[in-house]
């Protein structure tokens, strides 16, 4: 749960909305409670019956309060989901909340504060680099659900075909004919994310100048198998899908006709999502759950049914005008917390049509054999024919060399798509880790009221003073800390 704004008070309690104090937050117990100032509580105390008269306490796994950053949320709750995805388990992370409450910021972030998606991409490649026993194949998909229609955000701009959600024999849903791009670097993944974002439907509303007008699903398909040196006779590959979902925000009525239609469809799909989750957590579970009532719930059927590890980030906004939407979000979060997960690892047998990585490895083996065969045979054939067809043989050598070069190129291209710990740029990852560490140190200094000056200054040994910042500094470095209100002591 991520409140948009809070007001700290004593005893580890926080009040959402400074002026009216609508909510009390108890951080140690991760609990939000409607305060006595909340309109619904006021109605209750006046004796007016209301359906909100019970269950005004909401307890969650974690509360992220300002000035905490997205990386704190990621480290405590999202990292383990990404790790599960790399191990072969379907994983889903989605952000839920009213428009303007910070969902897109939490998922996408900024250059200074990366969101969940760029942090997840970084972790995926770090785990490949850190695992020398397996080979990986990564694919990216990106789609949006706009006015109950599916749209391929990575497909051709001229594509008019309406995409459809299908279901296989195992009950897993997929989008037919959705563009899928093989990727080998974090930069390629994030470039595809940016490309898709440019094609998203966004628009100004009464509450947000650039509001997401669609539900967006960013997928990373992870397939892995043991490296060739470790393969057994009956090797099994793993396949999983990581879903990172930015849900459109619930909307109030608006005077704009197109926005009113968008808002109506958004609210319908969010209502369908709430209905499905309410049915799932019932005991005993109903025999029929209306997943097909919306494209969103049908697409999320495997995740909501329990065959995935799921993380939900709910964002809420303060203010008297938002109290109904905030209460709806709190109720949604409390309900979805009851969903029970029984995820199974996605093992696929080699030789099946789903084992794309093994098909790729098999193609590499075939190309290797063809190259070896041509290499061993070309000179033998030349020796037998050199006396009679010198000119013809020269032409044949030229042709065979071209074949070899072409096959080698195909082999190299195929190898580049199979990722492992040695093919990932460790120096690049190390550089980014060091950059993140320096950025974190700078931020901690900034939080203490200190600034970092570049290129810095040095102070003679006899005039140095010790400044305790709690930040380790190498003994080989001279570091100066400047304070705007201080002068250098001499």
From TrEMBL:
It holds the Pfam family Kinesin. GO terms for biological process: microtubule-based movement. This is Kinesin-like protein. Gene3D superfamilies: Kinesin motor domain (3.40.850.10). Residues 1-339 form the Kinesin motor domain. Belongs to the TRAFAC class myosin-kinesin ATPase superfamily. Kinesin family. GO terms for molecular function: ATP binding; microtubule binding; microtubule motor activity. It comes from Wallemia mellicola (strain ATCC MYA-4683 / CBS 633.66) (Wallemia sebi (CBS 633.66)). GO terms for cellular component: microtubule. The keyword tRNA processing does not apply. The keyword Nucleotide-binding applies. PANTHER family: CENTROMERE PROTEIN E (PTHR47968), CENTROMERE-ASSOCIATED PROTEIN E (PTHR47968:SF75). Residues 34-53 are annotated as: Disordered.
